[in-house]
Amino acid sequence: MKKILISDSIGQSGIEFLKGKGLDVVYMPDITEEQLLSEIGNYDGVIVRSRTKVTAEIIAAGKNLKVIGRAGSGLDTIDVEAAKKAGVRVVNAAGANSQSVAEHTMALILALFRNLIPVASALKNGTWEKKTYKAVDLAGKTIGIVGFGSIGSKVAVVARGFGMKILVTTRSETPEKKQLLDAVGGAFVPLEKLLKDADIVTLHVPKSGETVAMIGAKELASMKKTAFLINCSRGGVVDEKALIDALQKGIISGAGLDVFSVEPLPQDSDLLSLSNVILTPHIAASSVESRERTSLAVAQEVAKLL
Q1: Which residues are known to be catalytic?
Q2: Domain 98-279 is of which CATH architecture?
Q3: Omega of the bond prior to 206 within 30 degrees of 0, cis?
Q4: pLDDT tens digits along 217-267
Q5: Neighbours of 287 (CB within 10 A)
Q6: Sign (positive/negative) of CA torsion 116, 122, 127, 129?
Q7: Residue of 275, 226, 214 lying closest to 251 (CA atoms)
Q8: Are the C-beta atoms of residues 236 and 207 closer than 8 Å to each other?
Q9: For a pLDDT cut of 90, what percent of the chain falls above it?
Q10: Which CATH class name applies to 3-94+288-305?
């Protein structure tokens, strides 16, 4: 019987699917790196999420390892090159969490535009901020979507429902993407124009050599002073030092961040002291429904390969 280790917390649907396929499933969502290193040699497959880092050392120790599955869309927690060299397949749950991330993106945008966090906090502290409260409508504003895969395209559909204008920058302008963008009345533009014209810039790209620090001091300076930056993609895509400087100096109006270059976010980070930024702890894909969808999707891929 093939053995699968699940080293992070995932939805029950995936676990039950694997068991239903006759696989021996061991669920250890709190396993330490040291334990994983000593145990991995006993398994044919391992399923991870965001906590577990599958390093080259762990892959080398997995003498019987045939497949690594990630219950999520990205693969940056897995040394894909080391897995490839070892003949170990790597699979994920591509697209399964896209709706949840798109909704979280819009939640951050709405909270920033409606100034919800400060006014809600003030009311709980006994201050009725009705006279000084200021908010801005989304209707008629321009959203710039960087990356137009399963998440970026869903953001476009939701944004269109708010009556927003849509600009998109993407690596590949395929006929399928063009058809979807036409349906929401959007347009493909170069990144430079998107940054210049957008009231909101939202990032939906994978972390790679091409995208690390793709939004830095130069890019932030080209945005409107009234614009907001949203990052629900990957930490490191934004130069955090440059962003902090831009937020402190009013180069842009504010930001909503769900991901960071170092996670958990260090307690001495200057981001924590800024009033014009909303921070969430990498939870955009963490809805109840998304957890089950990603769990089942990766389980199906792993079972197929085994």
Answers
A1: 234, 263, 282
A2: 3-Layer(aba) Sandwich (3.40)
A3: no
A4: 999 999 999 999 999 999 999 999 999 999 999 999 999 999 999 999 999
A5: 16
A6: negative
A7: 226
A8: yes
A9: 93
A10: alpha beta
Domain parsing of the chain, residue ranges: 3-94+288-305, 98-279
CA contacts within 13 A on the Cβ side of 91 = 22
Distance CA(136)–CA(112), nearest Å, equals: 9
Place of tokens 């100096």: 249
Question: Cα 263 to the chain's mean position, in Å?
Answer: 13
Instruction: Read off the pLDDT of residues 134-173 as tens digits, 9 standing for 90 and up.
Output: 999 999 999 999 999 999 999 999 999 999 999 999 999 9
Q: Do domains 3-94+288-305 and 98-279 have the same CATH topology?
A: yes
Which residue reads 């930024």 in tokens? Answer: 277
80 touches 56 (CB < 8 A) = no
The token pair at 55 is 């390093």
Model confidence pLDDT, tens digit, residues 45-69: 999 998 999 999 999 999 999 999 9
pTM recorded for the entire structure: 0.89
Helical ranges in the chain per DSSP H = 12-20, 33-39, 56-61, 80-85, 98-113, 116-124, 150-161, 175-183, 191-197, 217-221, 240-249, 288-305
Contact 36, 7 (CB under 8 A): yes
Cα-to-chain-centroid distance, residue 158: 17
CA distance 155 to 168: 11
Q: Is 199 exposed, middle or buried (0-12, 13-18, 19+ CB in 10 A)?
A: buried
**Residue count (the chain):** 306
- Per DSSP bridges, beta strands 254-257 and 228-231 are parallel
Cβ proximity of 70 and 94 under 8 Å: no
CA angle 86–87–91, rounded 5-degree value: 110
